[in-house]
Design brief:
Elements lengths: L34 E4 L2 E12 L2 E8 L9 E9 L4 H16 L6 E7 L4 E12 L2 E16 L5 E13 L3 H21 L11
Antiparallel strand pairs: 1-2, 2-3, 3-4, 4-8, 5-6, 6-7, 7-8
Length: 200
């Protein structure tokens, strides 16, 4: 089971989707190291995409984890051009409100930093198989203004994702009650290295 990873431009409302398995070396589009250290965990670049001239996407996983069954993921996305962060966040909130109609666990909160122009949206979703919860996914998305070294402007998304499956879900939800605030604080404080966008 894999989640939609096109977080800015495509809906992320369902937990079943695709992360392309690329047998060739993963292309790096942000001029960042192949390994990023975040919140005491090392994440390695595992997948990337540049599906349009204005959209870039990269996923990072801890060593030993795969997109098909990960527990932690770090994601970076960028959209260049005249794009309004407030409208992007509003669209994501609308999507989550719709999800609430079919997902009893779905919920979210959004924090705006007016001084920096950043937004931080954290939310939880689940997927059931019959009467049982098969998967729970908690995410925190930090939307930042983008201006790379070449002057390209737009929105940069730095995101973390945590997952639990099957019998591990109850323990995950208990832990989330105490760890969520720490995770949000770590994401808000994370200093991402300077970004320079590349083309194919």
């Amino acid at each position: 089971m894999q989640a939609f990873r096109f977080l800015l431009l495509l809906p992320a409302a369902c937990l079943l989707s695709f992360t392309v398995t690329n047998p060739s070396p993963v292309k790096e589009y942000f001029s960042l190291p192949a390994t990023l250290n975040y919140n005491k965990t090392s994440y390695q670049l595992s997948w990337s995409a540049h599906p349009s001239a204005v959209y870039y996407k990269q996923e990072y996983l801890p060593v030993g984890q795969t997109a098909a069954g990960f527990n932690k993921m770090l994601m970076i996305e960028a959209v260049t051009g005249q794009i309004n962060a407030a409208e992007v966040v509003k669209a994501k909130i609308n999507e989550l409100e719709q999800r609430k109609q079919s997902d009893a666990l779905a919920n979210y909160q959004v924090i705006q930093n007016k001084a920096t122009g950043e937004y931080l949206l954290d939310f939880i979703m689940s997927q059931s198989q019959g009467s049982k919860t098969a998967l729970v996914e908690w995410n925190a998305y930090r939307y930042l203004p983008l201006k790379d070294k070449n002057g390209k402007k737009g929105i940069l998304l730095l995101a973390i994702s945590r997952r639990a499956y099957g019998e591990t879900v109850p323990a995950f939800l208990r832990q989330l009650k105490t760890e969520r605030t720490k995770d949000i604080a770590a994401l808000a404080a994370y200093a991402l290295p300077s970004v320079t966008l590349k083309t194919d």
